[in-house]
Amino acid sequence: MSRKKQCIAMLLAGGQGSRLAPLTSNIAKPAVNFGSRYRIIDFSLSNCVNSGIDTVGVLTQYQPMELNDYLGMGSPWDLDIRFGGLHVLPPYQAVKGGDWFKGTANAIYQNIRFIKRYDPDYVLILSGDHIYKMDYSIMLQEHIENDADCTIAVIDVPIEEASRFGIMNTDSKGRILEFEEKPPHPKSTQASMGVYIFKTDKLIRYLEMDEADPDSSNDFGKNVIPAMLKDGQRMFAYLYKGYWRDVGTLKSFWEANMDAIGDDPELRLNDPGWRIFFRHSFNRPQYVGPGAQIRRSICGDGNDIYGSVYHSVIFNKINMHPGASVSDSIIMSDVQLMEDCSVNCAIVDRGARIGKGAVIGEKGKEDELTVIARDVEIGPGVVIKPGEIVTEDRL
Asked: What pTM does this model have?
């Protein structure tokens, strides 16, 4: 058996995700639920498996316990193999010191020994907080054909949104001439997706150079990529044309879940040709009671639904009483929806309880999302206005 891999993946999953608070108050952002039964990290992991990449290092840091428990030995993603598979890589103390990951580049630098263990020709760098279905093997093939030192996946964005991203300016053959981090006046609309493929020797060289620079932010976008460009390394953009969304804010997280309800084939969650693998945690069938209505929605397992659900994403073990209604909302697991309550344009985190006759948010107020944090209780008849983020009981 060969003791060498062509390509391994390093998946950055240690960010705090502060813009997604309060959903990330107790768990890492990649562990946040999505689409009725998945976690955000399932998409990057499934992309790896579907692309033929069987060795993945998951770099964790912030609130890692639930994410670590969820990942386990990697068996739900067929990543429990003997040589390779899934490995959780937290920060650690070494003889010569150690520290929390100081940036994306430093996180990979601290795990160079893991990379060298598999002696790969190429290293794929991923983020664990994006929703997309991408065949990395096509990107890798293009990287090899270009004899690239680094290939960066980009997606075309509207010009009015380009200043929110790292923008790649390229020539007619896709070679990157210039990289601008969130430019106020972007020259192109090719936005970095935070997906990189490096030749392993070049990656290690520039990580070591970056670590030796006391003034560096130890970040790929701010430091490593510009340094490689400055030195004239062969760097190419790979244009991805499918669905992709960075779910870094409450609004983008809500929008991506709503997109999953639609018919967009690029985000079809039950596509047999590109499975999204996940860890099954609850398998009791859903019960839909007399008079209940569920329209244009995605529902998980083990729910008891006696009310009405419209254009919403419903997770597991939800108890919805008669007269309760949910529209344009995300309801996480273990939520109690009592009689005649109404939830509109909202995100209700797991374990919350919405009292009889309570009103959460308002229909048509998608731009003013209402959020009920984990385990919060909303008392009978309480009205929560659009745009409120409720982190304590309202009785």
From this structure: 0.92
Rounded Cα–Cα distance for residues 112 and 385 (Å)? 50
Give CA–CA dist 275/270, Å, rounded: 7
Name 252's Cβ contacts closer than 8 Å, sequence gap at least 6.
245, 246
Pick from 105, 125, 307: which is nearest to 220 by CA? 105
Residues 223, 208 contacting (CB under 8 angstroms): no
CA 3 remoteness from chain centre:
31
251 in Cβ contact with 132 (< 8 Å): no
Q: Which residue has the tokens 């953009």?
A: 237
Residue 48 main-chain phi, psi, to 5 deg = -60, -50
Give first-to-last CA distance, the chain, whole Å: 63
Helix (H) or strand (E) holding 45: helix 41-50
Span 69-126, pLDDT tens digits: 888 888 878 788 888 889 988 875 454 545 666 788 989 998 999 999 999 999 999 9
Q: Is the peptide bond before 120 cis (omega within 30 degrees of 0)?
A: no
CA distance 327 to 316: 17
